[in-house]
Amino acid sequence: MRMLRAMFVGMAILALGSMRVWGQMSGIPDEARLTQQQQNKLLLANRQKRMVADTNRMAVLINGLQTQMSHSTPGTSMSVNMIKQADEIEKLAHDLKNRLKGID
């Protein structure tokens, strides 16, 4: 029984040693490896940047559509370009809503 325990301890030490050597051989210093918390922070920051960019794009599209609507004559139908802009605004709004809910 002692021999079996000693064998398992020896294998564990060997495994840990080889993992440490492999980590050093990978060329990535320990300080450069990102922890899970750091990775989560980066993902959240990137998500926030994407949401802000999409919100700004949607605001620009809305203002452009609003300008086109104000210059069109009342009672006429919307142009194809205006309909495409409205569809793109709707798609961006839907995507942003899903991202806010956490459905990426």
Summed up:
The protein has a domain at about 35-104. The mean pLDDT is about 80.
Spans of 5+ residues with little confidence (pLDDT < 50)?
A: none
Cα(first) to Cα(last) distance is 53 Å
Largest sheet: none
- Summarize the amount of helix as a percent range: over 70%
C-alpha geometry: rod-shaped
Series of H and E elements: HHH
The count of helical stretches stands at 3
Using only C-alpha atoms, the radius of gyration works out to 28 Å
Mean pLDDT: 78
Record field, number of beta strands: 0
Strand content: under 5%
Structural class: mainly alpha
Task: Kindly list the characteristics that best describe this protein.
single chain; 104 residues; mainly alpha; 79% helix
How would you explain this protein's 3D organization?
The chain has 104 residues and is mostly helical. It has helices spanning 2-25, 36-71, 80-101. It has a domain at 36-104. Helix 2 runs antiparallel to helix 3 (80-101). It is rod-shaped and about 85 Å long.
